[in-house]
Design goal:
This protein has 164 residues and is mainly beta. Strand 10 and strand 11 form a beta hairpin.
Length: 164
């Protein structure tokens, strides 16, 4: 069995400092990559990406958008959501029929195995009813997605204003 021993080959004895600096630099790079990663996942095979809340007027409902990917072998069913930034959160769907825009609550949204569903303007979205003071552009709020199977997925939703 061979063991490795770290030996400074620098004549000034700076080897340990160089190695420490390299380790810190690598760790900072890894942390930076993790911080910009748009995906959070849980052990159930669900991944949340592209999440944000759109607040138009603080006294009116806000909308939540995201993509939910199901990488597992089992179908999942989203049945609700909650956030401390909202008095309540509802699942909604917008549709255009014969030139008329409608929006209606839905009880659930299926996320088939190995597929994803997007909550986007003009389609499925979360309705944040009675936004709290914590829901303001430039900030973010946690949102807990609830599933029929009993699990949850928590994601951070940055809050955007009208033009962002």
């Amino acid at each position: 069995m061979r063991t490795w021993k770290s030996v400074s080959r620098r004549p000034d004895g700076q080897g340990a400092r160089v190695r420490l600096l390299a380790t810190i630099t690598i760790a900072a790079g890894v942390a930076a990559l993790a911080a910009v990663s748009p995906v959070s996942a849980d052990e159930s095979g669900l991944a949340l990406s592209g999440s944000y809340m759109r607040l138009i007027i603080p006294s009116r409902p806000a909308a939540g958008y995201f993509t939910l990917e199901n990488t597992s072998d089992a179908d999942r069913v989203l049945v609700g959501a909650a956030s401390p930034g909202c008095g309540s959160v509802m699942l909604h769907k917008s549709e255009s029929k014969n030139g008329v825009e409608t929006m209606m609550p839905v009880k659930s949204v299926a996320v088939p195995a190995h597929q994803s569903i997007s909550f986007a303007p003009g389609g499925y979205h979360l309705m944040c009813m009675a936004p709290t003071a914590s829901l303001k552009p430039g900030g973010s709020v946690p949102v807990t997605l609830k599933f029929e199977e009993g699990g949850t997925l928590i994601g951070d939703f940055p809050v955007h204003g009208v033009g962002s």
